[in-house]
Each structure stands twice: as structure tokens, then as C-alpha cells.
Amino acid sequence: MSSSVLDQRRLGVRAILEAIAAGSITPGDVIRESRRRIDAGDAEVKAFTRLSQVADMPDRGPLAGIPVGIKDIFDTADMPTEMGSALYRGHQPRFDAALVAMARAKGAAVMGKTATTELASLDPVETTNPSAPGRTPGGSSSGSAACVAAGFCAAAFGSQTGASVVRPAAFCGIAGFKPSYRLLPTVGMKTFAWSLDTAGLFAASVADVALFADRLTDRALTIPAEFDLSGRTIGFYRSKVDETIEPSMAGAIETVRRWLEDAGVRTVDVAEPGALHEARQSHTAIQGYESTRALMHEHRAEGARMGPKLKAILDEGLDVTPEAYDIARRAARIGRKAANALFEDVDALVAPSAFGPAPEGFGSTGDPTISKLWTLTGNPVVNVPGLATDAGWPLGVSVIARFGRDSHALAIAASIERLIANR
Amino acid sequence: MSSSVLDQRRLGVRAILEAIAAGSITPGDVIRESRRRIDAGDAEVKAFTRLSQVADMPDRGPLAGIPVGIKDIFDTADMPTEMGSALYRGHQPRFDAALVAMARAKGAAVMGKTATTELASLDPVETTNPSAPGRTPGGSSSGSAACVAAGFCAAAFGSQTGASVVRPAAFCGIAGFKPSYRLLPTVGMKTFAWSLDTAGLFAASVADVALFADRLTDRALTIPAEFDLSGRTIGFYRSKVDETIEPSMAGAIETVRRWLEDAGVRTVDVAEPGALHEARQSHTAIQGYESTRALMHEHRAEGARMGPKLKAILDEGLDVTPEAYDIARRAARIGRKAANALFEDVDALVAPSAFGPAPEGFGSTGDPTISKLWTLTGNPVVNVPGLATDAGWPLGVSVIARFGRDSHALAIAASIERLIANR
């Protein structure tokens, strides 16, 4: 029997779990529908690199009936983990990554592995953007964002060393949640730069990603029904980077600000402190130093088989001395304190998730510059979908909260998402 | 032609590199001698689980001629990485772990994989203690400590989540260096608890381990010739844990204190602050929570095939809630600040490396309680060898320095080692 939940363009975590709880659908119904959609649409979207067997999916647990896409840098025991790289063709791990094991333990249905740029770096993949034809879905978690945006899966796992969760979520017009550093375990996820790599999640809406994260981690992350924005203070973060954002994105930020004020929210400008400007600059040295060590054997033995953007990062990283790395780490540490201090005056910050909508074509996954600051500081960031350019390309707005206040980031982001949806 | 360097009971990093630089031996001489010793002695010591091909060893680079043993939780592309576990029998990684790749890039000779307790936990292995017959070499880095103590290798890689570098170094009477958290990359090293796991090094003496670490990392860690202890202040760290140390260890600590004072060093008592007592208690919850996630698939799918001590840690870890984990992490964070504050008044701290010498027999790898505090806080710790019980069993003394001041920890430890050697 067909159900309205399964007729929606996108599969919503909350709607699915409510329908299953109400007995109107079964986990198996959702899993079959997910697979049907993948079979029908993925030849065009190219979100998946490999599909799992639908027969053995769990039918009980708090996430039973939630079809999940797994970025192909997370180990899976039942499917190869190829990391978008010729170097890992056919590579078969013996056990699941921590996050994959957690999802399965909760009953989630792992539908397959999703396309990632090589080793979660910058060389584009073939995945298309279901929300913006002819444009990149962003990266490096390209397939994970696309499989949710296309309505194939209700949730997906990604990772972010620069902007690889927030950016594709913004470009594809879905919710992306980059939690506080190490809220989600990265064990069994391929390392690029260990002090930056952060596992993250995608879902259709902020409420969906929050509920999924809650059930996955047993943390109180679901949006409280009574949460109310009015009377709160939201800071609008301004940095030098903003000078080059596109007019459509500048307009989106101003729109959100106006609507927040209409809703009784106090808004203030927050200028980037010098310490965070410095911290932003330090990202390159930290990523360079750590990635050349994390991938030293791959680079030395098989560098010639790597994509040009990945190889360039690793080649340049060799020039970062331990002294330069230590200076960069110090800047990052000072930046983290400065980031914390920002939240003494505001409940959350709002900033662009990217410079504009997804760029045209597939030659680049877009510019990660804006988001990488918050990857470095470790603050939770939620991409709020719902706004778009005049042509209809999604524009993403980031909500950033204090380190460890992930539930707060999600609740404020969900309120802004509702505000947008209700206009 | 035989050389005096290769006639020593233990292979010294510094002596080897000096002899190679002087042209009196070649890297190949050392590698062949290392292999000869392994072939002659490892049937008794059981340090190695697998040996590599000697034919292809590098003959140039700043660590050429340094034979190294690799704890079998570090990935190696040319040998299986079995982690002391039936679950990983025959497991063959595609690329080397970061630290292994760094060692090879510097010209070090990877002689083989060394015995580790299962997944670097507490279930003992068959390795014997070359410095204390009939006694455990300690764990979890049992084979790495033993291969250096037996004179098979000049250096070895280990790891520490509780006390798995400092304790075996102490029990085997060699130098062990647990650097500041994440000074050495842990990429490609099996994770047990990500906020605790620390890669560490073994060598015959403190000067040897410092020189090896220097050349491995390109950091200025070699002991400066002009380094002088006199006029400095060394704190003797006292906690509740000390109430149960054995008389031989209490005597060793008092001996070091007297000799330091004779050498013009100011010594003071440093009582464990409340915050560090709390931090010590938090280790169990952090390790429990993280290990049950890091090893979730292994535990769920194959728990019945695990050793009883490992399985017990994972079973109990399931009871640690996210709330309890967050409380423990907060205690750890406060503890790290308290640990830093200790070094405003002292140049370094001295504490026992274990409760006494290696316990008799092979049923346990010894008690990790003393050292795990400094694993949690991330401070650098160096085990200083040279003292012994009346029966001749090694007693290890730890030198602890401020986070990030690894060169300082090594220099002070080397001075104390010299002080001991000269009495």
C-alpha cells in the first residue's frame, strides 16, 4: 500500500519514523522505495559508487527504515571502500567504521557507498546536482549530498576537512550538520588531516538531520517543540571573505536578517576578530603538514596516479616545516578561544555557507574558503536550506554555535528554516 | 669487519649513527647484525610476530642503519597487521601507517612486526622480558620494548592508551618516550580510544630515543650537549596512587631525589591537585565510551573470539552514557589546565613509571594506573632506565614535562639517566 510519506520528493527522517511508529508503513517499504528510486534515478545523478544487498536490512531499532548513504571513505565490511581513488580500487575492509557500525546497530539501512572526491580532497567526481542541473553538487561529500537531495536516501554520512559537508549541503539545497569536532567518531574513516577531519550528516531538513543525529548518538539533539527564537540575539558574522560573496548570497543573508528581526530576534553585526582572521590563514599549513604525513606512503609510492588537485596539496604540504606547523597550531588554538568568546554576546552566528549557489559545470566542487574557519575551530555548523537565486539554484545559510552546543546550533537552524519555509 | 658498536649488548641509535658517519660500519652491517640477533634469540624472547625481508632495506637517509621493530597495530604494506587478534589474522593493509612511512622515508630498516596484546589492550602475549627472566615485559607494546631490551633493534614503535609505552619500557629497563598527544601521527595505527591513543618510541637510552625522534620528525629533540640540570627545579609528584607503590620503587624515587640534590638541583614535593585526581578517575569512562565505538563492529560481530580482558573493557564501556562521557571529558579538560599550571613552578616532574618492577609470571602485563593520568592530560613522559631492585629487576622513573615541551622532557630525563649511570 502506498503512503504519502513515500510519495514526497525527498525522504524525510521524521516523517518516515512517525509513519513507521503509526504503523502506516514498514521499514521494508521505505527501503524498497529507496532502492526503487536509486535504480530509477542514479544513472543520471551518479550519487552511488556501489549498492548493498537490500535483502538483509534490519527491520527494528530506533533508525529502522531510514535509508542511509555512506561516503566511500568510511570502511564497510560488506562493500569495498575505494575512497574515490585508483589507489584503493577493490579495497575491502574487514570491519565497519565506527559510525557505520553505530548506524547499523540502531537499525539504519545502509543503501550503498556514495561518490567522494579522491581521498575526500578536491578533484571533482561525476555526480550531478539534483537541485541545480548542470552544476556541481559540491564536494568532497558529493554523492552523500546528492543522494539525499535526489530523494534516494533519508540521510547520509559525509566528512569535512575544509567545507565538504556544509558546501555540498548548500549547493544541493538540503540540511548539512557538521558537528563539534569529534562529536561523531572518525575511526575507520580515511584520514586527510587529523586535527580538521570531522564526520558530518545530511538530511532533507534541519529537523530531520537533528532527529537522525539524536537517534544515532543517543544525545539530546532533536529539536524541542517549544524552542522559540524570539528574544534571542543572532550575530551576523562579517569577515574579509564576505567582500567577494555573490550578490545573490548577500541578498539571502540580508533576507534572513530581516525575517529574524520581524520574528522578534535581536540581530547584531559581528566583525571577525583578528585572532580568527589569523586562524583562518593557518588552515592551509595545518592541512598541508598533516595530509603529507597521513598520506605519506600513498603520495610517495603512487603520487603519479593521484588526481592533480590532491597531488598539488600533498606536494605543497611537504614544504610545511614542523616550526610552521606549530605556529599554525598556535594560531588555531588562539582562534578557538576567540571563537568561544564570540558566543558570550550572541546565541548563534549566521554566515554564508558558500560564496553563492553551486558554480556551473563540473570542473570544480566550488570554493571551500568560507566554511573552513569553523572546521578549524571545531564549532558546530548547520547548513539551513530553503533560499534560492532567482533562477532557482539553492543558497545555503550557516548557523554556527559555541563548541559543544550542537543542540543549540540545530534548534536555531531549524527555527530559521521554518521562518524561511513560512514566507 | 666487526665493530665495537655491534658488540654491545644493546644496539644504540647514537653509537650506530656515529659509526656509520665515521665510515667504520655500513647500514647493511647493522641490519645484518640485527637480523642475526633476532634469528638467534627471538625463539626465546618472542618479540616478533613477523619478520620482513632484509634484502631490500634502505642504505641512505638520516636513519639508515637503524633497525626498527613495529608494534603490530601499525599498518604495513609489506607485512600483515594482525593486532594480536584472531579477528585480524592475515589482515594485509594496502599502505603503511604514517609513522611507518615516515621511518622508511628517513631510511630506517623495518625489521618486522612486534607482539602486541590484543588490539593494544590487556590480554598478555607470550613475549618474555629480556631484562627480568620469568617476568612480564609489560604491555601492550610488549614486543617493541622486548626487541630493544634484547638488543635486536635500536628502536621500536609502540602506543599508549593507558601506560603501554612507559610501563614496558620501565619493566624492560630501556628508554620509553610517550610524546605530547599527537606529536607523532596515529594515522594507520589501530584506534582504541581516540582522545587517549598516543604513538610512542623505545630505544636503549634516553639520548638514543631523543636522537631517533629528532631524525624521524625533523624536530629539535636531540639532547643539547650543553644542557645542564643545576639550578633547575624538579617536582616530585605525589598522589594517592603512591600509597601502594612497592618499597623498591619508593627507594628508587628517593635515590633519584638525593642524587639530583647532590647535583645542585632544587627538588620540591608536588601534591596531586584535586583536578588531576578527578582527571585520573575520568580515564575509565573516556576509554570505555570511545573504545566501544571505535571497536563496535568487532565487538558486536566477534566479541566471543576476543580475549577476556579486552571483552570486559568493551562490555563495561557500553554502560558509559554520552552524559557520563561528557562529564569525564570536562574533568579531563580541567585536568589538562591543572597539569599545565604545575609547570609554572617546576621544570619537570618525577614520578614512578609503575608500582615496582615487572610482576612475576605472564598472567598480567602489570598495572597501568600510575601512567594513565599523563596519557589523559597529553603531557610528554620519558621513562628513565638504569635503576633496579636488589635482585636486579629494572625500575623505571618517569620524567614529565609541560605539554608541547618534549625536548625539555627528554633533556631532563637524559640528565637524570647520566646521573644514575655515573653513580
UniProtKB/TrEMBL annotation, chains A, B:
Q: Which domain of life is it from?
A: Bacteria
> Region Disordered: what ranges?
121-140
- SUPFAM superfamilies for the chain: Amidase signature (AS) enzymes
Check the record and name the InterPro entries matching this protein.
Amidase, Amidase_dom, AS_sf
According to the entry, every stretch annotated as the Amidase domain falls at 46-408
Q: Describe the family membership recorded for this protein in Swiss-Prot or TrEMBL.
A: Belongs to the amidase family.
- Which PANTHER family does this chain map to? GLUTAMYL-TRNA(GLN) AMIDOTRANSFERASE SUBUNIT A, TRANSAMIDASE
Q: What is this protein identified as?
A: Amidase
